[in-house]
Amino acid sequence: MTIEILKSKIHNVTVTGADLNYVGSVTIDEDLMDAAGLIEHEKVSVLDRNNGERLETYVIKGARGSGEICLNGPAARKICVGDVVIIMSYASLTPEEAKEFKPHILFPDTATNKIL
Questions:
Q1: CA-CA distances (angstroms) from residue 86 to 2, 10, 47, 94, 96?
Q2: What is the pLDDT of residue 24?
Q3: Secondary element (H or E) of residue 81
């Protein structure tokens, strides 16, 4: 048996872009991805603190050091530029593995999306 636990969390970043005409996904500054242990195409949950919206999508790399957080495709209709979001990914582990696992949790500067 496995259980799903929090693997990575970027807590309180500001959305810098929304591209309705892109195929889909969330673009994340590669520095934030690395610090959170996220990899390109990984499934994530995005929670909007401004309107309560929750959605699932996948990650694509943004320009390193840019602070970019861009919702693409249909998600651009649900989450707006300037909204503050939480981005999380999960891992399936055995209960024994889960007891020892420590998630990557980031608290970047909300104004710049830079790692503090």
A1: 25, 6, 5, 25, 27
A2: 82
A3: none
Which burial class, exposed, middle or buried, applies to 80 when counting CB atoms under 10 A from its CB (0-12, 13-18, 19+)?
middle
In the block, residue with structure tokens 């970047």: 108
Q: Which residues are catalytic?
A: 25, 58
Compute φ and ψ for 95, nearest 5 degrees: -55, -35
pLDDT band, residue 23 (cuts 50/70/90):
confident
Whole-prediction pTM: 0.96
Residue 29: how many other CB atoms lie within 10 Å: 25
Residues 6 or more apart in contact with residue 27 via CB below 8 angstroms: 17, 59, 60, 61, 62, 68, 69, 70, 72
Look at residue 38 and give its three-state secondary structure. Answer: coil
Domains along the chain?
8-92 (2.40.40.20)
> Which alpha helices (DSSP H) does the chain contain, by range?
30-36, 95-100
Return d(Cα 95, Cα 3) in angstroms, integer.
7
